[in-house]
Amino acid sequence: MTSQIKDPVMKQAAADATDWLIRLQEDPDNADLKVQFDAWYAGNNTNRDAWRATQKASALMAQVAPSAHTATGTADWQAFLRDRRAQENSPEPHQVPAHEVANDLADTPSDGADGNVVAADARFAERRGDLRSRNRARRANGSWRAIGLGAFAVAASLVVAIVGPEISTRLRADYVTDTGQMTTITLADNSQVTLAPETALRVTYEADVRAISLLTGEAFFEVTPDASRPFTVAARNVNVTVLGTGFDVSDGAGQTRVAVAHGLVRVDNADHLTTHSERLEPGQNVRVDDAGQVVRGTVPTDQIASWRTRQLIAQDQPLGDVVDRLRRYFNGTILITDDALAKRSVTGVYRLSDPVPALRAIAKAQNAVVREITPWVLVVSPS
Question: Could you tell me which CATH number the domain at 306-382 has?
Fold first, then answer.
């Protein structure tokens, strides 16, 4: 369950700080508004602390989540995506609707993170409506979408959940999952692909080729053998070729990872990198970073794609990488303030169905703390 700010005074100050951020970015030249803000800010230390925390989160998001400038929140994001597709007269791709998600986090309690986000979204919508009423006389269009996305972006990302694949990626994809959602799809040749949360795939099946593009995220592939039609998976840093096998491909944190559960695959560096090729057998994996550097390793086959059973297994992995994997299951943003902390080694098994307690456990083991800026923004920093 997502933690909440307990102190009612601080909770109100945090809400007020969010409102002020929205209002000041919405109408930056309003001198009267600035006078009112100065009075609020000078009112007490709690207001000042809340404002500094909100500004810090804004700056961190600008650095850590550069795609946030396109985010408009959980509910409105989906509507905006549909609007964009309709405007471009593009047929709806095979995006997996919520009611068809086979492996959604069914064990998440009804009053858990998703419930908090829905309730918080409702509270923000009400507060946003109040702001619209106050400013309607100054705007020709009362809809919040009339506000420039560049001005509204940071404020929106502070008070609503940011979903995973950005809009441009979704528009290119055939299959997409959202935060916390997993699903298994069956392709035309009966090969199966299980998509982790925040994953986008594009599929190209032709007479002599079976080609998958992993646009973002992570997926596990069970491939039907067909020697006449090679099965390939292209990710940011690698091209994977198989005949018949089960393997996992993950893209994120500046590197692409491939791990083989059974069968045999060939992993080649992507075309824009230095030519390099590796053959992987069961229990072997390889990581290729954005510079083309290749690191081989081994992993127990029963731990490959452990996310399919809602487990995050880390073995001497940088905290930053582990948190990147956890982010896909949290309806919001997780920020790490310290580079040295992000490089610390993490080992453990954590529940992906409970991302906030998992994050706190990871932080505690590293003598770090998790601070809640809003229910949707968690900041990890040294204690």
Answer: 3.55.50.30
pLDDT above 60 (res 266)? yes
- Token pair, residue 9, equals 């005074």
Q: pLDDT per residue over 186-200, tens digit each?
A: 999 999 999 999 999
Map out the domains of the chain as residue ranges: 8-164, 182-302, 306-382
Tokens of 110: 């009804």
Locate 289 and state its tokens.
């970073």
**Number of residues in the chain:** 383
Helices 45-64 & 149-159 angle (0-180, nearest 10): 110
- Find the helix packing angle between 8-26 and 45-64, rounded to 10°: 60
Q: What is the mean pLDDT of the chain?
A: 74
DSSP string, 205-241: EETTEEEEEEEEEEEEEEPPP-TTS-EEEE-SSEEEE
Higher pLDDT among residues 88 and 303, named by residue: 303
Contact between 3 and 375 under an 8 Å Cβ cutoff? The reply is yes
For 79, 204, 239, 263, 295, the CA distances from 267, given in Å and listed in that order, are: 38, 19, 6, 13, 12
CATH class for the domain made up of 182-302:
mainly beta
- Determine the 3-state secondary structure of 261 from DSSP: strand
Structure token pair of residue 36? 């009112």
Among candidate residues 371, 327, 334, the one with its CA nearest the CA of residue 352: 327
Q: Pairing between strand 231-234 and 209-222?
A: parallel
Selection from 56-60, 102-106, 352-356 with the highest mean pLDDT: 352-356
pTM passes above 0.70: no
